Amino acid sequence: MTWLRRWGWLLLAPLVCSLVYRQSFVVWFARDDFAWLGIGLDIFDLPSLLGALFGPRAQGTIRPLSDRLPFLLTHALFGLDAKPLRIAIFVLHCANLVLFARLVFLWTSSRAAALVATLFWTLHSSLAQPLTWASAMNQVLWPACLLAALSFRHAGRRAGEWVFFLLGFGVLELNVVYPALALLRYPDRWRSTVPLFAVSAVYALGNRLLAPPNTSPVYVMDASPLSILHTLGQYLLMSMGAHVPWSVTPLSPYWHAATLLALAALAAVWLLERDRLLLYGCAWFVICLGPVLLLPRHITDYYLVVPAAGLGLAFGVAALRRPLLVALPLLVCGAGSYLLSQEILLYNRRQAESARVLVRGVEQAAALHPGKTILLAGITSDQFWNIVVDDPFRLLPGVKVYLVPGSEQNIDAHPELGDPLQCILPLPEARGALASGQAIVYAAGGKPLRNITGYYREKAAVEWARQLAAVVDLSRPYLSSQLGPGWEPIEQGFRWMRPRAEITLGGPGKTLFVECFRADAEPRPGPVTLTIRHAGQLLGTLSLPRDRCQGELALPEALWPAPELRLELAASPAFSVPPDNREFGLAFGTIGRK
């Protein structure tokens, strides 16, 4: 009971947080979450495991302890159940609140200042993203490392500080700013910060060398003073609940006015008191934002999570020194920030629910139609860019999912994010899959998904006139109608031809190309000659060595506009495989015209 009386007040902020974000536990996965959940699908051995954990990804970032390991463990242990990860993130943030409140109390010797600082951080709208979107969890993991390191530094325990300082680099690149925070708070211990600065410098240089160059215009850096000041001003307004694209309400002007009053009150308290701890809170805000101030085109609300703690410290000290001066504007800003956090929470919940309905609906459809390819119709642009583009369906074992032909007409173009055509089954393949019963079609516009295969079968037979595919991926079954005699069943990623085989390609096209595979175990070390004829006319030959089993062949000009080419293929030398001594020519991946 003695401990509870002394430290029980530390639980107030976690209690408030649980009330503010009580809906976060039911939020499913969305957007980038699916890409991170799928990293385990590419792990086959130790090298691939190390590549998955430490290879540069997502704008060249290397975050094994935030973007990689948590998702890897979540998918391995719980599949697509998001609740365990949500609970873990929430509990960790509650620990952050307790650590922060304790630090502020140790620095100010005031419970009131610590409570104001922590409640300001608890209600801050920037927390809505990491608490309701798993891909932003690094903004909860990093402050855990930073606050733990500062706590150990305050206690004079260098080993503990180093452990959490180094762990921070596995969470987020912004951890390079920690030595500056440590030096400003404890300037008398400056010698112990020199190694910290050295490690940060080495990490920053190594990260820059290992990460591939980022060509996205969103991440173009601008180090000009005017740009940095403008970006800092935008983040300062956002940090107080103003100038945020999420919220446009009739009360916005009043919140903006309260923001300016609160910042003016903070400046007035500093001018009157000249409190160094208040100034440290403001410096915390600027230092933690420092690296992202170079990205004026990538202003993001969740970058404010850790800087907001610094502002909370400043307001906590200001409330301790001049409570009447800061109380009213701070209350108004807190109310506005709370309402904004609820808006973000509901938005993320709607996005995640849309993803859950779609992915779980596909999972149920696959269970009803085992072995069938699922075509989705009615996918909106928002659904595509927030769900489909990251291919959540590969997380469902054995399920093949494409969009119906023509889906690209409903999807806004964002070439910097991806190409919708990569997710759409070409019309000839879709027609063949529907005609052969290999595919079913579900409408994705409602809840639950609706089976509309009958409508699309009629559409394929009537509106989609017979059109031959100019390119045939032989690892997929949908264009089997274009194959003649001489082909074996599909294997993993390819299809064998006998010494002779026939295939029909659509057109037009000036060039014929082939992509084949040669196994090291083949009993023919030299190149294989592929002879290609059309209607008995020799079109040419390709010599396909083992190390580069692909080639192109220019077609006669008279055949360029031809809508149909019936090709006769002959591979030499062939080889036989016991026990039945069947003869094989080449293993094909793709053949087509362009």
Structure overview:
This protein is an alpha+beta fold and 594 residues long. It folds into 3 domains: 30-350, no CATH class; 369-464, no CATH class; 473-593, Galactose-binding domain-like (Jelly Rolls). The protein has 20 helices and 16 strands. The strands form 4 sheets. Strands 5, 6, 7, 9, 12 and 16 form a 6-stranded antiparallel beta sheet that branches. It has a 4-stranded mixed beta sheet with strand order 2-1-3-4, with helices on both faces. A 4-stranded antiparallel beta sheet has the order 8-13-10-11, with no helix packed on it. Helix 9 packs antiparallel against helix 10 (158-169), helix 11 (178-185) packs antiparallel against helix 12 and helix 14 (252-273) crosses helix 16. The chain is elongated and about 95 Å long. The protein starts with a helix and ends with a strand. The mean pLDDT is 86.
Descriptive keywords:
3 domains; six-stranded antiparallel beta sheet; elongated; 14% strand
Write the layout of secondary structure elements.
Blueprint (H helix, E strand, L loop, with lengths): L1 H6 L4 H9 L12 H5 L8 H9 L9 H15 L4 H26 L2 H13 L4 H5 L5 H18 L2 H12 L8 H8 L4 H21 L14 H15 L12 H22 L2 H14 L15 H17 L1 H46 L4 E5 L3 H6 L13 E4 L23 H9 L3 E5 L6 E2 L1 H10 L8 E3 L13 E5 L2 E4 L2 E7 L4 E7 L10 E7 L2 E8 L5 E5 L9 E9 L2 E3 L4 E3 L2 E7 L1
Parallel strand pairs: 1-2, 1-3
Antiparallel strand pairs: 3-4, 5-16, 6-7, 7-16, 8-13, 9-12, 9-16, 10-11, 10-13, 14-15
Helix pairs in contact: 2-6, 2-7, 6-7, 6-9, 7-16, 9-10, 11-12, 11-15, 14-16, 14-17, 15-16, 16-17, 19-20
